[in-house]
Structures are given as C-alpha cells and as structure tokens.
Amino acid sequence: MSTPEHPLPVHASPSAVDPALDPAWIRRAVEIALEEDLGPAPGRDVTTQATVPASDTGTADLVAREAGTVAGLVVVDETLRQTATRLGLPAPAVTFHAQDGDAVVPGQVLARLAGAVQVLLVAERTLLNLASRASGVATATAEFARELAGTGALVLDTRKTTPGLRALDKYAVRAGGGTNKRMGLYDVAMVKDNHVVAAGSVRGAVEAVRRTFPDVLVQVEADTTDQAMEALDAGADFLLLDNMPTPVLAETVTAVRAREGRDGVPEHVELEATGNLTVDRAREVASTGVDYLSVGALTHSAPILDLALDLR
Question: What is the pTM of this model?
C-alpha cells in the first residue's frame, strides 16, 4: 500500500492500449452486467441499500492481490457512472494509479475511488468481474510475449473468447503485448477441413471465397507439408499450420519459404503455428521461422488475476 513518503503515480487515462476499447461497447457490456446483478433498471442491491445510508461517502482502493499484467481499468468509470445513475446518486471520482498493460505486484493500488459508499459497493462485483477477467487474459498473453521476445514471432489470439466479451478479451490481449488475429468470421476467410469437404477441394474453397468476397484475405489450414503446398498452389494468402510436431513444422516452413516469390506465390507467406502451444514450447516453435503462434488458451483458459476493492 502507499505511504505519504511514497506517493502513488497518477495517470490521466486508465489505458494507453492501441487501439482503445470502444466506449460504446463498454456502455453496452456494463449495462448487461449490471442488469444481471441488479435486475432490470433501476434494479436493487437488497443488502447494500438496506445497510448503508445513501448519504454515506467514503473511499475505496482497487488493489492487485497478485502479480500480473493489469487490463480492464477502462471499465471502471463507466461501471461507476451507470451504477450511480441507477441509484440516483453522484458518480464517484476515480484517480488511476496504473494503466492497462502495466505489470503489477501484490498490494499495488491500481485506482482510488471516492464517493457514495452505496455506489462503490453495488458496482464492486461488476467492476471486478470485468477487470479481473481482462487482467487474467493480459497476464497470460504477457507470459508468451516475454518468452517470444527477440524471436521475431508474435503471439496471436483466436475466436475462442467468452461470448459477449470478445472485444474485452482481444483488448486484454493487446494490453498483454499480443496481437489480434481476425475479430470474427467477417474480416478474414479461414478455409478449414470442413470447408474443403463442402467445396470439393482446397482450390475450390479458395476460389469460392475469392469470387464471393474478393476484398478479404484467405488463410488455409494445413496439417501436413503436402497440404501446405496444396494451399500455396490454390492461392492462399497465408497458412495456418495446425498441430504439427516441431520437426514437421520446421520442414514445412522451409518448404514454404523455398516457394516464396515463385509461381505466383507471394514474396512472403505469413505462417501461423497453432495447436497445443504452451509457454514452455514457445521459443522452440518460434525457432522454426513461423511468424505467429496463435494460442486459444489466452482467452478460453486464462485464470483471472485476483483484484479486490477495499474500503479505506
């Protein structure tokens, strides 16, 4: 905790992450989360509103209980504002002492909240649910980013996100030093085995996408070196190399690089390794020469980072 001799830093903004999380998305997400907790607007907290006078004011610290990388501080102001509106009380003031993307240690004060105690307590769980979730994703991503430093490879997320929270999950990946892949089914085509079956061949699937959606990039999934070569012949823009043992992955990367710039193949084909990737294997996989490691576990399996809201 802070002491007078060691004043806390103050940040004008809770985030320096680029691109920032869309404020309209934050409003919608907070509204849904508060309705889950309080019921239809204005809703109620039967415990807090019975035991805490609406006139009581106080201060609370948002604190990290464990080490990690923080994310989701951008939801704090909106959560307090909407809660205050529901209760008919002024929104508490917030002073941020950390930013999304910061490495934090146990006991570190991330933000100080001052205002109506009812608002602080009613908002507490929604605020912590969102920020703890995002911080867990950022922490998991940062572990991969540190392991990949200097290799030239980047860690990517996937579509394996919490329904309704994809924007927050992918924002948290950025806060942790990772890179977003496609945001959904609408912005990049990914030809997988079922698409090949439906279209009759890899080439048929790629050509169908090009005819129908000529503005999108086309990625093709490959499980073997031969499949990767077939995808190049079909005109894929980049390849997803799925569940390949490291020696096979290295062989495939070498084979693809030898084709670059020839026979209509782009000068550089972006290669993405995926499937059963762990931090322990990250540098080994990166050493094969792939451009990316995509890790579904960043968003579907990351434990939360333990955060707390402590009244002072």
Answer: 0.95
